[in-house]
């Protein structure tokens, strides 16, 4: 039985929180503790609204409700929905022996944090369970980034921990509904070894989060920044705040050089 490592108000975590925390703890702090917003471009907004429209459509269809009014005047949406239904028989086939639920939500208490997942569609039989997820971006050429993304890892982890299925009986499949000429999928199976690794990595990451929260609350000392040498700060909307713009790097370097000069002038 694990003991609690969290005593902070920030407790409910999704895969988005975990990805952000892993990618840059300071960015996590800016967004969730300092409540600083990230500007969203028109294209991102469009993608988000299209994605939520498609998810609503799939949910309505799964509930056996008519979807005609939702696709009216949306020819392309209608085409993509039909293409997905043709390409993914498991989306189509319903039998009474199978558990199916769209927008299926689960929460796991992990060291005092509430890990929360929402499956686009969960299908369960006596022998296996499948998590399905609709993606409205094109299929990536390389599956590795998705394999290590916290969505894949957390979704599989939480289902294993909150059901009677063994890791080997669980899989997760992403459907890329906009892929041409037909929707494509990527399936990830699961194993006891991966489950153990996910548990260890979650324990480490959330242990760090607890330390950083404590430090921030007491001092406050900011969450760690990523190394400037990664080059990722240049495209980050917090580059000015983090003093990671090209100008601030030059100024910092000048400051260091000035300090060095001053040091050299001190008589011995
Ligand atoms: S500028 Fe760099 S260190 Fe600061 S939040 Fe962005 S990615 Fe993180």
Automatic annotation (TrEMBL):
**Which InterPro entries has this protein been placed in?**
PDDEXK-like_dom_sf (IPR011604), PDDEXK_AddAB-type (IPR038726)
Keywords (alphabetical) are: ATP-binding, DNA damage, DNA repair, Helicase, Hydrolase, Nucleotide-binding
User: Which Pfam families did the record assign?
Assistant: PDDEXK_1 (PF12705)
- Which GO terms of the molecular function aspect are on file? helicase activity
GO biological process terms on file: DNA repair
Task: Show where the PD-(D/E)XK endonuclease-like domain sits.
Answer: 12-243
The domain of life for this entry's organism is Bacteria
Q: What is this protein called?
A: PD-(D/E)XK nuclease family protein
